[in-house]
Write a structure and sequence with these properties.
The chain has 268 residues and is α/β, with parallel strands linked by helices. The chain has a domain at 9-159 and 204-229 and 262-267: Vaccinia Virus protein VP39 (Rossmann fold, 3-Layer(aba) Sandwich), CATH 3.40.50.150. The chain is built from seven helices and eleven strands. The chain has a seven-stranded mixed β-sheet with strand order 3-2-1-4-5-11-8, with helices on both faces. Strands 6-7 form a two-stranded antiparallel ribbon. A two-stranded antiparallel ribbon has the order 9-10. Helix 1 runs parallel beside helix 5 (86-98). The chain is globular. The protein starts with 8 loop residues before the first helix and ends with a strand. The protein binds S-adenosylmethionine. The site of S-adenosylmethionine has 18 residues, from helix 1 and helix 4.
């Protein structure tokens, strides 16, 4: 009997992300040599929402190999990064050592975090390529609320759900905007090195904007600001062009599509 990929999503996606780490670590996209020399990997979109983070303790969900976590730490925060991929977390710990930063990294599925972490935080942060890997964002919102101190701030920046409606060439609408059954895909290459001969199986879900904001509102978070952007700060999609420095748009669609959205919310 064949196992349902949706039920086996954790193992499939862990394997997917483990397989990318070495390529990502060597890629121009992540530019580890510049990062080691002090480059901050965060973008203006999230920096504007984060504000002054000196002295704040921050929980960073789905931190990959920790560049953004360490960047937050370099800005004066005390950061705990969490990720499902053991290879990513092992490399994040190596980078923390190399950069002499005291960032903490935990390897687990976000849903299992309460087994390992009881502390509450001034801020929870997550960005770019996150909730699409999560089957249930009601539980995700519960976790965010649980880990925020009263008055604490949640900062979110991610690709717009409209992006995930399209096929990989942005030619046609291929998927439902609203949450539907799991999307199981096999792709070759990775966004940080599109020509790398990696064959990656993934299981993901689309979450519309009202779904995301709705689950947070139900947890008593107050949305303080919300913005949509017609560009991506990353050259991560097929057929992207850099139309302005640091702003990538899909060649055939120009500025017609929202590519990123970002918001901050406060736990009352
Ligand atoms: C696109 S990356 C995050 C990107 C990050 N902004 C970066 O570029 O460094 C997505 C990360 O989510 C992690 N991930 C996927 N599903 C997860 C889950 N259920 N729990 C924790 N981490 C998960 C993956 O291992 C991967 O490192």
């Amino acid at each position: 009997m064949k196992t349902d990929p949706a039920k086996n999503y954790e193992a499939i996606n862990r394997q997917n992300w483990n397989a990318r780490v070495e390529t990502h670590a060597q890629s121009a996209f992540y530019d580890v040599p510049a990062f080691l020399k002090g480059r901050n990997s965060l973008n203006d979109i999230e920096l504007n929402l984060l504000g002054d983070i000196k002295g704040k303790n921050i929980l960073h969900l789905q931190c990959h190999f920790g560049q953004d976590s360490i960047s937050l730490q370099r800005l004066g925060a005390q950061v705990t990064g969490v990720d499902l991929s053991d290879k990513a977390i092992a490399y994040a710990r190596e980078l923390a050592q190399q950069t002499k930063t005291d960032t903490t990294f935990i390897c687990c599925n976000v849903y299992d975090l309460p087994d390992q972490l009881t502390e509450q935080f001034d801020m929870v942060f997550t960005s770019y390529g996150t909730i699409g890997w999560l089957p249930d964002i009601t539980n995700w919102a519960t976790l965010i609320s649980r880990y925020l101190k009263p008055g604490g701030k949640f900062v979110f920046a991610d690709f717009h759900p409209v992006v995930w409606m399209f096929d990989s060439k942005f030619e046609k609408v291929a998927y439902n905007y609203f949450k539907d059954e799991a999307i199981v895909e096999s792709e070759s290459g990775t966004y940080a090195d599109k020509d790398k001969p990696l064959e990656l199986l993934s299981v993901g879900w689309n979450h519309g904007m009202a779904e995301v904001l709705g689950v947070l509102l139900k947890q008593g978070l107050q949305i303080d600001s919300l913005e949509e952007f017609d560009y991506s700060p990353y050259n991560c999609f097929n057929d992207c062009v850099e139309t302005e420095p640091g702003k990538f748009r899909i060649k055939q669609h120009g500025n017609k599509l929202p590519l990123v959205y970002a918001f901050s919310a406060t736990k009352k």
